[in-house]
Design a protein that fits this description.
single chain; alpha/beta; OB fold (Dihydrolipoamide Acetyltransferase, E2P); four-stranded antiparallel beta sheet; binds zinc ion
Length: 384
């Protein structure tokens, strides 16, 4: 039992500069369940960093009391690269300005490297298969050869998470209630996570496309199961979730304390922390398919005027926002341009609104949780 703090150095830096990510480790190395929590992978999403800070403070007290029975790792500031990207007075934390994409995409696809390591070594013992695969996955991460700073960061984070039983990647949306992304095979097994956090929406996909961090850890298991077939038992041994802690502006000490308490209760339920968890709160939603999310985008540039609020139930075809060109009539014209109506393609609950008030063609303005997959939504199910 001890609280260890390690600053993991990041590679790929120009001479004269250095970066690191700070890892907090609680409990005993090698104890199970192994839990990994990170905040701020999208560096401008502050609620996750604040919740992780509150979690570290809670864990320090619990660990000092000998109550961390598993191993818990927390990286409160997962993206120092993004945190340091500023253009004039604006922080840019979602995309790597050096050209290496969205920080929560393109995490390593370990399938082939793990298959090569475990082929012929898996058997009928599911627990032994889990151990064999975890060791292989760690080896596979260690042999990645990143070039860019962003890929060094991706490898460093994955090296701390890929062998975990539970991975919580704390993010936030624009304007939204608390919601989760999960692999389909993890539901309803992870309903206690949704209940403890008070999630108001849960989106499931077997593969959501783009290789986000949570799926680098979790989808590996069901992809391996599909590869080796039913003779080789391979459990979905990593419960990984992208946890969206409401919206960008929801940065409040009380909310962060509540989120940390929800995570602690969940970890007590899962045996990583000793003690009796509070009674499981009632689940506030059922999971819906990520492929059923209607991302209503604007076809034109202009001022956006939402017609709905988060939480509203809308019918298919309903107007959910208008986009207005404020230029007024052209010379000689009598009428100002008519606003463009944005309509829902599906019935469902509005769960996200953009914070932007002037949008461009393609900007997602409203997101609606539909109950069934939408036609044509099969591959890239997440926004950029
Ligand atoms: Zn994010």
């Amino acid at each position: 039992m001890a609280h260890h703090v390690v600053d993991l150095p990041l590679g790929g830096n120009p001479p004269g500069t250095a970066r690191s990510v700070r890892l907090h480790r609680f409990g005993s190395a090698g104890a199970r369940p192994l839990v990994y929590v990170q905040g701020g992978l999208h560096a401008t999403e502050i609620p996750g960093m604040l919740a992780a800070d509150r979690l570290v403070r809670r864990l320090m007290a619990l660990d000092a009391a000998g109550a961390v029975t598993g191993e818990v790792r927390v990286v409160p500031v997962a993206n120092p690269l993004g945190l340091d990207q500023r253009v004039f007075d604006e922080r840019i934390g979602r995309f790597d300005m050096a050209g290496n994409g969205n920080f929560n995409r393109d995490h390593a696809d370990l399938l082939d490297a793990v298959v090569a390591r475990v082929d012929g070594r898996l058997g009928a013992d599911a627990a032994q298969n889990v151990a064999t695969i975890r060791a292989a996955a760690l080896e596979a991460v260690a042999t990645l050869s990143p070039l860019s700073q962003a890929d060094h960061l991706r490898r460093t984070l994955l090296s701390q998470a890929v062998d975990a039983d539970i991975v919580l990647d704390l993010h936030c949306d624009d304007i939204a209630p608390l919601h989760l992304y999960l692999g389909t095979p993890l539901w309803p097994g992870a309903a206690d996570l949704a209940a403890d956090l008070g999630a108001e929406a849960v989106f499931v996909a077997e593969i959501s496309g783009g290789h986000p961090f949570d799926e680098a850890c979790s989808a590996l298991w069901w992809r391996l199961a599909a590869h080796f077939g039913p003779e080789v038992p391979i459990l979905p041994a990593c419960l990984a979730s992208t946890v969206e802690l409401r919206g960008m502006g929801d940065v409040e000490a009380d909310l962060a304390a509540r989120d940390a308490a929800g995570i602690i209760a969940f970890l007590q339920r899962r045996g990583a922390i000793a003690g009796t968890p509070p009674p499981l709160p009632e689940l506030r939603c059922q999971a819906t398919p990520l492929a059923g999310v209607d991302m209503v985008s604007s076809p034109v540039a202009g001022i956006v005027l939402p017609k709905v609020a988060v939480g509203d139930e809308v019918a298919a075809g309903a107007c959910v926002a208008e986009v207005l060109d404020p230029s007024g009539p052209a010379a000689g014209g009598l009428e100002a341009p008519r606003p463009v109506a944005l309509c829902a393609a599906t019935a469902g609950r509005v769960w996200s609104l953009t914070t932007r008030r002037f949008v461009d063609p393609g900007t997602v303005v409203v997101k609606i949780a539909g109950a069934a997959p939408l036609p044509g939504k099969t591959e890239l199910l997440l926004t950029p």
